[in-house]
Amino acid sequence: MAAPRRAKRSARDTGARTAQAYDGAVRVQLGELQRARILSAMFDVACERGAANVTVAHVVERSGVSRRTFYEQFSDREDCFMAAFEQALSYASERVLSAYESHGTWRERIRAALSALLIFLEEEPVIGRLLIVESLSGGPKTLARRGKVIARITSAIDEGRSEAKAGSPQPLMAEGIVGGVLTVIHSRLAQKGRPPLIELLNPMMSMIALPYLGSAAARRELDRPLPPATAQHNHSPLLADPFKDAGMRLTYRTVRVLMAIAEQGGASNRQIGESAGITDQGQISKLLNRLKRIGLIENTGVYPGKGAPNSWALTETGRRITDGIRAHTEGTTTTTKETR
Asked: Could you say which of 187, 210, 240 is where a domain stops?
């Protein structure tokens, strides 16, 4: 009899550990999503008010989280802004470094990287403004991090000395070029009704090529064809808050229930409750009906409400929200090592 009892205890212990692990994973997921909502709000209010004028109260109000939740994620306003800057840097670096590494010669690498940056800034004006403009008012930590990134870019420009046609430009030349390029981009981002940023590509490349490759190469850069202009996103997909228009507060239980339905479409109240860790059938029924009322789920049972088991599935809105939850909690804030 001892062996069967030990087997039953082992099965219960394994089940309990599995439930605890799932519970912990969902709590981590919720924390990451709350963090993403706060950072999305920081991008918005920093670009609207200017980074120097943003307070924790502004961010809390825009994100819809509590002040306590904010301080669970960040130590203060500057810490939050620094995290937003790192996220902006990560997004831009992924695009720019991929373009830079796909070409051979120095000139083609620089042109591909600059083109990718200008297109990115056009597509993502909020991210671009925080990265280029508002980071200057982000605080000492942000300025130090910005300085390291600029040093890395300067080093890439200075590699042109190895291809110099006549003489060797001074090391300060690269620093001056980077400063000039950033100043022009900064100025353009602040303008309303400006022409597309991609139109800066040829003049900037001519300026970059001149001291390293000579006047003939600089003139050729002015005549090269441009990539097509791209459209701005009024509301950046990269910063989308999946719960912003959901009509309800984001909670641990809400996330668990929605993700349970996403993972097992057609499940009943009891099955969803078990997956979400809600044992009270009255509570799970109340929550499911609320999610149904605001249009996130639907009951696809044959005879719902007439004694037959419910069969719950996500609506299109519900799928967008669960996709947003996954997007914000699956490695979207990794900073590439090349920018460190």
From this structure: 240
